[in-house]
Amino acid sequence: MGWSNQAVVLVVLEEEAVGFSGLFGYSPYAGPGNLLLSAAARQGTDPDDNEYLPGLATYGTGAYSGLVAMQLYKQSLTWYGASSETGPWIAINALALEPIMGAVSTTGSFEIAGAEVWIKPTGDTSGATDTVHINDYLAAGYTVHLLPGQYYVDDTITVPTGGALVGPFPVQADTNSGYGAGDLALQGPVIHAAGAFTGDDPPPAVIECYNSTDTQEGGQVLANFSIEANTTPSGSGVFGILLHGAVAAGYISGVTVHRPDGACLRVQTDTGTGYVPDQWTVENCTFAASRSSHGVQADIMPDSSFVNCLSHNNAMDGWHIGGFDNSRMIGCKGENNGNAGFHLGGLSVTDWPCEFTSCTSQLNQEDGWLFDNSLSGVFATYLLTGCRSMEDGQAGGTTYAGFRSSGNISRIMATGALVVADATGPYYGAAEESSSYGMCFTASSLGGVHAATYDDGSNTHALVNQEPVPF
User: Fold this and answer.
1) Which of 9, 92, 161, 444 could serve as a FRET partner for 210 with CA atoms 20 to 30 Å apart?
2) Which of these, 125, 266, 130, lies nearest to 208 by C-alpha position?
């Protein structure tokens, strides 16, 4: 016996006059002729004139035929299936439709009508089936749970306002990390951009929270899955995840994005409305190995938080962010990137600060931390506490620094900063140039291959390096 490859809709029916209730399973939806299973106190017919019997019900046809019974004990639901009334009866896990014992198998999904659905991958590597399956449920307002396995999509997965796409546990591993004894495969539910991936927008994303209107949307949740975008075409600019326009108060947690052609996470202003993603929380995520772009690229991202996130082995910057107004990073890392670990391109609200606490850049080819005005900014404040640059400037040369301000019009105030140099770089511990506003380091240790600090004399305030502790 087994389960067919179908979603099962569960419906609870109540008849107050006789105190009767029952649980009924339909596929693909509740309707005439679609009743697959039932658990009811007495014989009867449902609102669509499907007849059912008490206690037991037949389900399916052919190789997938059998009997089903249900037991509710202390609010714990267990289904039992058998090919005949004499058994053997096999207990079946209700959520995943997989056996607790026995040989029942499925590639289907399990649904609580109108609320949540648990989806298993179909194995269709073209991406057509999984794409439709996931998008249809999200569009209908379901919380979509992905079970561990390999999913393939040939088009963008769109998570609507209030929607949720979640796996069973957080994931952080990727094949470019080089752990102590080697790499690890992507973990949990893995969403592959199939070879025929097209996407919705130019450039598209594997997953998007997208709003081009002037009506506020948001509240999306993305959690506990991996995205593998290695097969997206070079030059396509395909993002891993795209946040676009007026989408706010969202949450990304325990997600790994690996090897898209574009940025792993792209945060984008809608040019038509001027609205931006706002007040997002991103935690315990990995943004790895963008083939031609940044790990995280944000035009502007106010009132947001990144906590314990790693952006590494990307072709350009690990973090490329503008307009990080009233936002904060805690315990984040930018490592082994082609350009800078952290590239901060300007703040957009006068006097509003952004904060970085215990964040580390390491072994990046260029600067560890670069502050400039490349994304257009106004006068504001960067506050750094306990931040580090470890052996950055690996490309060599005489310009790279652990912390570099170049044409940056905001002040930089750092406490407890540490720059460690190796034989290659960085050239300076901290450098200030090209008419920057000013940098001040207190209780810090700034090491460089050539010198601890450099100030080209064009700046509003001279670079200040105060080291009250002599070591």
Assistant:
1) 9
2) 266
What pTM does this model have? 0.80
- SS3 of residue 56 by DSSP: coil
Pair of tokens at residue 4 = 């067919």
Helix (H) or strand (E) holding 381: strand 381-385
Nearest 5 degrees, angle CA 194-CA 229-CA 292? 130
Tokens of 447: 């090491």
Q: Are 317 and 292 in contact (CB under 8 A)?
A: no
Cis peptide before 148 (omega within 30 of 0): no
Does residue 203 have a cis peptide bond before it, meaning omega lies within 30 degrees of 0?
yes
Determine the straight-line distance between the first and last CA of the chain, rounded to whole angstroms.
73
Measuring CA to CA, how many Å separate 319 from each of 40, 51, 360? 57, 60, 11
Q: Which residues of 398-436 are buried (b: 16+ CB within 10 A; e: fewer)?
A: ebbbbbbbbbbbbbbbbebbbbbbeebbbbbbbbbbeeb
- 16-37 burial, b if ≥16 CB within 10 A, otherwise e? eeeeeebbbbbbeebeeebbbb
Count the alpha carbons within 13 Å of 291 in the hemisphere toward its beta carbon: 17
For position 351, what pLDDT does the model report?
Answer: 83
State the Cα–Cα distance between residues 18 and 16, nearest whole angstrom.
Answer: 6
User: How far apart are the C-alpha atoms of 79 and 86, rounded to whole Å?
Assistant: 16
Decide if pLDDT at 345 tops 50: yes
Token digits of residue 285:
């995520």
Asked if residue 406 lies in contact with residue 370, where contact means CB atoms within 8 angstroms, the answer is yes
Contact 207, 167 (CB under 8 A): no
Strand, coil or helix: 53: coil
Say whether 250 sits in a helix, a strand or coil: coil
**pLDDT of 272:** 96
Residue type, 35: L
For residue 64, give the 3-state DSSP assignment.
helix
Distance CA 168, CA 249 (A): 22
* Average pLDDT estimate for 1-7: 34
Return the bridge partners of 420, or none.
390
Q: Hey, where are the domains in the chain?
A: 7-112, 116-466
Residues 6+ apart with CB under 8 A from 54: 40, 41, 42, 43
Distance CA 120, CA 130 (A): 9
Topology given in CATH for the domain delimited by 116-466: Pectate Lyase C-like (2.160.20)
The CA–CA distances, whole Å, from 197 to 122, 150, 291, 311, 395 equal 17, 16, 17, 24, 35
